[in-house]
Every structure is written in structure tokens, then in C-alpha cells.
Specification:
Helix content: 25-40%
Number of domains: 1
Number of strands: 5
CATH topology: Translation Initiation Factor IF3
Radius of gyration: 21 Å
Distance between the termini: 72 Å
CATH superfamily: Hypothetical protein apc22750. Chain B
Largest sheet: 5 strands, mixed
CATH architecture: 2-Layer Sandwich
Length: 135
């Protein structure tokens, strides 16, 4: 295989890989149960309420659900809500109260040659909800 063909094939593979990478949204979630909080049995994700403020109704805080999401392109809001409900349900919650929803720097990308690098900040969306159990 001559060098020109090899470079063309290799370059096309990188371009295709970057195109696929750029076109995908990402979403991950994790939980943190509070020390000393109740540990009720799991509930159904379909029953979990998503609230924007703490309810007046008596409740106990079980822990936090943290969702990290890309912003370019962003995942569908339904996917974010699904992750919040799924993880809160695993903790036995009845609802999740959103306490943080902002875009933050999550990393750095360096491109270009070593003698003239370009540094870009990678930003992502961070959503934090407190899982609660009604009393």
C-alpha cells in the first residue's frame, strides 16, 4: 500500500471517528446515600416526583442523585429525568428535589502541534437532586 493511500484511509478513519464522537450526547449518574439516613425498600421509578423546591409535607432526606450530561449535543430532558427517577427509586424515595442544575467546566482538550497547542475547556451539565421519602 503506498503512503498516499494509507494516509487517506487513516485520515478518513479519524475523521469518521471524530464525526461519530461529536454527534453523540452523553449522560451518567451516581448516587450518594446520606450517613444515618433511612434505607427504605426500592420504589417504582414511575412514581417518583421531580420537584423544583422542597415540599412543605414532612419528609426525610435519603441522599443525592448526581447526573452528568453533555451539552453539545445535550441528551433529551426525558433521559435526564429518567436517570433521576431510576436512581432515586433505588434509594426508596418518593420524590427528588432538584437543588443544582448548571453548566460547569469538566475537562480540557489540547489540540495542535506541540509547538503551538490550542487549549479548549470542555463543559458539561451537572444536575443534583436530593432523594426524599415522605413520612
Amino acid at each position: 500500500m503506498n503512503d498516499r493511500i494509507a494516509k487517506s484511509v487513516f485520515g478518513s478513519g479519524i475523521g469518521l471517528g471524530l464525526l461519530l464522537l461529536v454527534g453523540c450526547s452523553s449522560l451518567s449518574s451516581r448516587t450518594m446515600q446520606y450517613v444515618g439516613a433511612p434505607r427504605p425498600p426500592a420504589t417504582s421509578p414511575a412514581q417518583i416526583e421531580i420537584l423544583r423546591s422542597e415540599p412543605a409535607r414532612p419528609h426525610e432526606k435519603l441522599g443525592e442523585v448526581v447526573v452528568d450530561a453533555s451539552i453539545d449535543p445535550p441528551p433529551k430532558i426525558e433521559k435526564i429525568e429518567e436517570a433521576l427517577r431510576r436512581d432515586a427509586a433505588k434509594m426508596g424515595a418518593d420524590a427528588v428535589v432538584l437543588v443544582h442544575d448548571q453548566i460547569h467546566p469538566v475537562g480540557t482538550v489540547v489540540t495542535g502541534p506541540w509547538w503551538s497547542p490550542m487549549v479548549s475547556t470542555v463543559r458539561g451539565r451537572l444536575i443534583v437532586g436530593v432523594a426524599i421519602k415522605y413520612q
